């Protein structure tokens, strides 16, 4: 189950028990709600039951958003082992695709941008590290093991295994995310 992989990432980073992490980490609170309602969203439950439960989900996810400052719609696609380093100011578009074992920090926005055929949301690969207050927007692809530096604005594709920083973000090195992701 994906949520167990999420919890493992938190316990690996902190060295604390899963129970302590579940009681104290706002990122896990948001992920738990997201995983449950995403499971309903992708399930084959009867439509009327699914839409009733998703209606409840919208309200619960809004409560989590108000409480934690983390917006993760149930329709986003997020791989296992997702790690939110610090809560608050995190916005993930409902159509975003995020790979497995990714880390994001506070203030991150993963959203829609562009015009015409370039309008869309990002697809983020596996093992990607996204620094504090970074914005990734538009119909772009972030390659596996990329590093997005803090305060960067990413509006173009990023090669896997590279580090980008700045506004707009540009490649500054071939360093990958290995030092950031367990």
UniProtKB/TrEMBL annotation:
Which parts form a coiled-coil structure per UniProt? Answer: none
GO MF terms listed in the record are: serine O-acetyltransferase activity
- Top-level lineage group: Bacteria
The record, for Gene3D superfamilies, names: Hexapeptide repeat proteins
Q: What is its EC number?
A: 2.3.1.30
Keywords from UniProt, A to Z, are:
Acyltransferase, Repeat, Transferase
Spell out the reaction equation it catalyses: L-serine + acetyl-CoA = O-acetyl-L-serine + CoA
Which SUPFAM superfamilies does the protein's record reference? Answer: Trimeric LpxA-like enzymes
UniProt GO BP: cysteine biosynthetic process from serine
Q: One GO cellular component from the entry? A: cytoplasm
EC primary class:
transferase
Q: Which family does it belong to?
A: Belongs to the transferase hexapeptide repeat family.
In Swiss-Prot or TrEMBL terms, this protein is called Serine acetyltransferase
Q: Give the classification, highest ranks.
A: Bacteria, Pseudomonadati, Bacteroidota, Flavobacteriia, Flavobacteriales
């Amino acid at each position: 189950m994906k949520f167990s992989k999420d919890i493992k990432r938190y316990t690996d980073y902190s060295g604390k028990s899963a129970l302590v992490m579940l009681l104290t980490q706002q990122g896990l609170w948001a992920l738990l709600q997201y995983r449950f309602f995403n499971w309903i969203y992708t399930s084959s439950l009867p439509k009327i039951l699914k839409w009733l439960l998703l209606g409840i989900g919208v309200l619960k996810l809004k409560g989590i958003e108000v409480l934690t400052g983390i917006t993760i719609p149930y329709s986003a696609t997020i791989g296992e082992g997702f790690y939110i380093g610090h809560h608050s100011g995190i916005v993930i578009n409902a159509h975003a695709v995020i790979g497995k074992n990714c880390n994001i920090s506070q203030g991150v926005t993963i959203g829609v941008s562009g015009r015409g055929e370039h309008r869309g949301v990002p697809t983020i690969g596996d093992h990607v590290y996204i620094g504090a207050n970074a914005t990734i927007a538009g119909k772009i692809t972030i390659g596996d093991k990329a590093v997005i530096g803090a305060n960067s604005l990413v509006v173009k594709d990023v090669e896997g295994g590279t580090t980008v920083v700045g506004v707009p973000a540009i490649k500054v090195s071939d360093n990958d995310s290995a030092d950031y992701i367990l």
